[in-house]
């Protein structure tokens, strides 16, 4: 491990709270690759990630509200009947995608994923704000100009199912600009 990777690892350990899950509760999950390396830059790897996600959602009975896969991280908005299944779900997602990527690159055992962070969603506004945040994440990171131009997200599902005007209305009703840090409005008031 290089000195930079070691320093990054120490920094992240200080900022990784324990995971605490409650049954039947919405969570936003964010996972990053090790040292934010662009392990998923290859579109083929994003397809593997998406297909693995689809299989595991069915296996674990997860309700997946929104998702996006970028080159060095992903976001999920999900609910599990049993909260304890969330960690097992993420563990299998990371193990399966790492194995496929490492097989392709002929680098067995290489660590791909660093960790994941979760936020319990406490309000309906918080749910829809995160829904919008996830779909706008490729725009935020400069991959595309519009969310519909990024094919590795749930945006297209909602555009077909509900229509683009529904998505636009959702963004107007639950804007994300003031919540880019992922904080709920009540958290900002309490800290202020």
UniProtKB/TrEMBL annotation:
It holds the Pfam family Y1_Tnp. Residues 22-137 form the Transposase IS200-like domain. It comes from the Bacteria. GO terms for biological process: DNA transposition. SMART domains: Y1_Tnp (SM01321). One of its GO terms (molecular function) is sequence-specific DNA binding. Coiled coil: none annotated. InterPro entries: RAYT_transposase, Transposase_17, Transposase_17_sf. Gene3D superfamilies: Transposase IS200-like. PANTHER family: REP-ASSOCIATED TYROSINE TRANSPOSASE. This is Transposase IS200-like domain-containing protein. It comes from Candidatus Viridilinea mediisalina.
């Amino acid at each position: 491990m290089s000195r930079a990777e070691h320093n990054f690892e120490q920094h992240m350990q200080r900022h990784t709270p324990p995971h605490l899950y409650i049954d039947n509760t919405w969570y936003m999950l964010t996972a990053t690759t090790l040292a934010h390396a662009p392990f998923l830059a290859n579109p083929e790897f994003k397809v593997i990630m998406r297909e693995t996600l689809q299989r595991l959602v069915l296996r674990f009975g997860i309700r997946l509200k929104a998702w996006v896969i970028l080159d060095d991280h992903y976001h999920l908005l999900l609910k599990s009947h049993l909260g304890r299944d969330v960690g097992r779900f993420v563990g299998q997602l990371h193990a399966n995608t790492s194995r496929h990527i490492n097989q392709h690159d002929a680098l067995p055992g290489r660590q791909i994923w660093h960790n994941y962070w979760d936020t319990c969603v406490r309000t309906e506004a918080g749910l829809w704000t995160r829904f919008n945040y996830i779909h706008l994440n490729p725009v935020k990171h400069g991959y595309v100009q519009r969310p519909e131009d990024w094919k590795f997200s749930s945006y297209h599902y909602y555009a077909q199912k509900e229509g683009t005007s529904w998505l636009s209305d959702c963004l107007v009703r639950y804007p994300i600009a003031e919540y880019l840090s992922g904080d709920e409005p009540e958290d900002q008031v309490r800290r202020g």
